[in-house]
Amino acid sequence: MKTFLALLLYMLLPVAAFAGAPAPDCCTPEYDQTVLDSYRKLMVQSAVYQSTPEANKGIRLGIYQAQADYGPGASLKNMDRLEKIARMAKPLGVQLLAFPELYVPGYTLSPAEAKKVAEFSDGPSITRARKIAAELKMAMLVPYAEKAKTKDGLLYFDSIAVINEKGELVTSYKKTHLYGQQERDNWSFGSEPPPVFKAFGFPVGVLNCYENEFPELSRLLALKGAKLIVGPTAADCYYTLPNGTRSAVPYPDVSTVLFPANAYANNVFFAYANRSGYEKRGGDEWHYRGNSIIIGPHGDVIIAAPHQQDTLLVADCVPGYYGMTHPAPKYGYLKDRRPEMYAPLTAPKADFLPGGWVYPKFENGKEIGRE
Questions:
Q1: What is the DSSP letter of 52?
Q2: Domains of the chain from N-terminus onward
């Protein structure tokens, strides 16, 4: 009997070892100050060709990953840094420069703080960014906290100022897919679909953080003609609550799992602009993943940032330099779609849960009817 129990225990050990959720993969680094200081030194990585891409045919993209300032006075400090990075990127030939989600004020805001730091789209931060863009002839994606007068009154949004190389504000894109309770407490839901705009004649789609993880949105932008999708984000490894507990699991690292597939499925370049390092609010602490990356239309990783490092990534995105993915030239994912079969994608109810899931509605920037 003892032999049988021992054998049974031996057989179950592998199951026990791999059962349950994986352990967090990005624990707090315990480094001395010299190492920590090195992470705040700007590293520049590039994957560029000898000449800047021609207008309409491609674009030289810059992604700035940073431990940005937060707390009182952060907006001005981060705008000073934006100007410094833009002027540094100009001699490198960068034509479009993107920053992480809520770059201007910081991400870890309370509802009261969110309202305090929010600006109108013609406020000081975006007006300054437009002037810099016009002077440098550089398009920019500048994420900020927006307050906007709407038919429903004054609302607050997690937004991205889309600025072309002439310094014109093409649009202020208001995030439509909010993540978790904090974002729902701070912001209203945007109601306009993600935009495609042209920088130097090249079509660029814009998504915001959590939205990058929805294949429907990437496909939507590709169908609207985008050849590059840029997604500012604030994806963390974990966050610490005021009571000292840490989130049970880290936010997933989707950069090398989901995004190459989305890029390949839509034949687009895909860029993820994340924060790095730490950010605090009271007893809460966020440790960001720093997994910024630029991916080619064949799902290839062109360049990726070290996870803890302040980094400027620069890469040329030229669709013409990529050949076919399939041997039949007349066919492809976008051309071979059958829209008449996809009605369930927009149905108000789905059956992936017992009893079905009824999707909430959105009115006045609020989510209504979520179970």
A1: P
A2: 37-319 (3.60.110.10)
pLDDT by residue (tens digit) across 17-69? 333 344 445 655 677 889 888 999 999 999 999 999 999 999 999 999 999 99
* H/E run at residue 112: helix 111-117
In this structure, what token pair is assigned to residue 360?
């909430």
Its sign, for the CA torsion 201, 122, 126, 284, is negative
Rounded CA-CA distance 353/225 in Å is 34
Kindly state the DSSP code that residue 257 receives in the 8-state scheme.
T
Q: Go through 113-146 and write b for each residue having 16 or more CB atoms within 10 A of its CB, e for each that does not.
A: bbeebbbebebebbebbbebbeebebbbbbbbbb
228-232, strands of its sheet edge to edge:
196-199, 202-206, 228-232, 269-273, 293-295, 301-304
361 forms bridges with which residues in the sheet?
368
Segment holding 18, helix H or strand E: helix 2-18
Give yes or no for a contact between 158 and 119, defined as CB atoms under 8 angstroms apart.
Answer: no
Among 131, 77, 70, CA closest to 101: 70
Sheet holding 236-240, edge to edge: 236-240, 284-289, 276-281
Q: What whole-number distance in Å separates Cα of residue 47 and Cα of residue 190?
A: 35
**Tokens standing for 266?**
């839509």
- Cβ(262)–Cβ(215) under 8 Å? yes
Q: CA 25, CA 62: separation in Å to the nearest integer? A: 28
Could you give the count of Cα atoms lying within 13 Å of 49 in the half-sphere of its Cβ? 11
- Could you read off the pLDDT of 317-337 as tens digits, one per residue? 999 999 999 999 899 999 999
**In this structure, are strands 236-240 and 43-47 parallel, antiparallel, or unpaired?**
unpaired
Nearest to 124 by CA among 101, 104, 99: 104
Q: Which of 201, 204, 255 lies closest to 225 in space, CA to CA? A: 204
Q: Please state, as a whole number, how many other Cβ atoms lie within 10 Å of the Cβ of residue 183.
A: 20
pTM of the model: 0.92
Give ∠ CA 247-250-256 in degrees, rounded to 5: 165
